[in-house]
Design a protein that fits this description.
The chain is mainly α. Helix content is about 80%, strand content about 0%. The protein contains 15 helices and no strands. It has helices at about 1-5, 10-35, 40-50, 50-85, 90-95, 100-105, 105-115, 120-130, 140-150, 150-165, 165-175, 180-205, 210-215, 225-235, 240-270. α2 packs across α15, α4 runs parallel beside α10 (about 150-165) and α12 (about 180-205) packs antiparallel against α15.
Length: about 270
């Protein structure tokens, strides 16, 4: 078996298959989006992204995705800390449930939010009595984005906390540092790469969320119409060029975020 794997023909065929799979599954669809967006000329592309409804949907998506990412950084770091530093009944179950948004269809997640926070629910009714509107408004969109991106920060921070040498904290305490100072100067720098990388991945993922958002957003231009739902509406209206133009903005942002994460990881390894 080892001699077969070392054979040049086998190696070349295996690499070619992987590259072909990568090109067909990822590269060609991305190139297709870019091609369609410019198929009617650069002027038409500029007009498509300059459309007030399209531009507002992009700005709204950026703002809400940033809010969701910040919430995930804070809550995700706290949950990762609890899962690593504390032992309690049900900890393995809680740890396994962190990955539930990855396994659950996003439309199901949106339905869960709709049933839990909708006007006919106990929480939704109580919020309405206090003058708070959740479902079909921006808070529901942020909640949906937080739900689908929930595991990113947790899974990025957990291994960093597990690999943190306890002797570093003990040395800081021995030198007279207090608990808050030790946390700020020893623990936070160790968690920072995971917090930043996980937060950027959560932001990138929230930009493109559709399944959970479409069920809880009111789809009002400038108020609750996010980019993914706008793209879907353009496709339904047989305006593929307009949909592709907005998609390019999201794709470019995602590429930029991934590039920044890779650069940060490479610099971390060099250190």
């Amino acid at each position: 078996m080892n001699s077969l794997l070392r054979h040049k023909g086998w190696t070349w065929g295996f690499r070619s298959t992987i590259l072909l799979y990568f090109v067909v599954l990822i590269v060609l669809p991305i190139l297709g989006v870019y091609y369609n967006s410019f198929s009617l000329g650069f002027k038409n592309f500029v007009e498509s992204i300059s459309d007030p409804i399209a531009w507002r949907s992009v700005l709204l998506t950026l703002r809400l995705a940033l809010m969701a990412a910040i919430i995930n950084v804070v809550l995700g770091t706290m949950i990762a800390w609890v899962l690593v530093r504390y032992k309690f009944p049900g900890r393995p179950l809680l740890n396994s449930m962190v990955d539930l948004p990855f396994a659950l269809p996003t439309a199901v997640g949106g339905l869960m939010i709709l049933l839990l926070l909708g006007p006919g629910s106990l929480i939704g009714g109580a919020a309405e009595s206090l003058g708070l509107e959740i479902v079909f408004h921006q808070p529901a969109i942020v909640i949906a984005m937080v739900f689908v991106t929930f595991p990113f920060v947790i899974r990025a921070v957990q291994p960093l906390l597990e690999e943190l040498d306890p002797s570093e904290e003990e040395a800081a305490y021995t030198m007279g540092a207090k608990g808050i100072r030790v946390f700020r100067q020893v623990i936070v720098p160790a968690m920072a790469p995971g917090m930043i990388g996980g937060g950027m991945l959560a932001f990138s993922r929230a930009l493109a969320e559709f399944g959970a958002v479409v069920l809880v957003a009111g789809n009002i231009p400038g108020r609750t119409l996010v980019s993914s739902v706008f793209i879907y509406g353009e496709v339904e209206s047989d305006n593929g060029t307009g949909a592709a133009a907005v998609s390019i903005i999201l794709l470019t942002l995602s590429f930029l975020i991934l590039w920044l994460i890779n650069v940060a990881q490479m610099r971390g390894r060099r250190r």
